[in-house]
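Marked as duplicate of an earlier ticket. Keeping the data here for the record.
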Amino acid sequence: MPPKFDPNDPEIAELVSLFKSSGISEVKTLEAVRNPKTSAALKQLVLANKFNDKPLDDKSASLLASLANQGSKLSDDERNYIARAIADGRLKTNDQLSGESS
């Protein structure tokens, strides 16, 4: 059984603060911190692209969270490229993110 989620854990609180400062909704933030792989990927994306300094809008932040969740087979460089495409508006939908449409 996975360890119980403790929002008062300093590491969890730090991640929540980092993700929220990037524009990621509370719901998406809590989903991410409950999954260690997604949380690590999202943290890397936020820090590498400095989204905590220049937060994304709601839709872009949601796409970024989806990228962290779905992009586990991508390299860091590939995820960062996609994250920048989300930030500058080249990718705007989950379908584009998953490659289902253009």
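See parent ticket for discussion. The chain has a mean pLDDT of 90.
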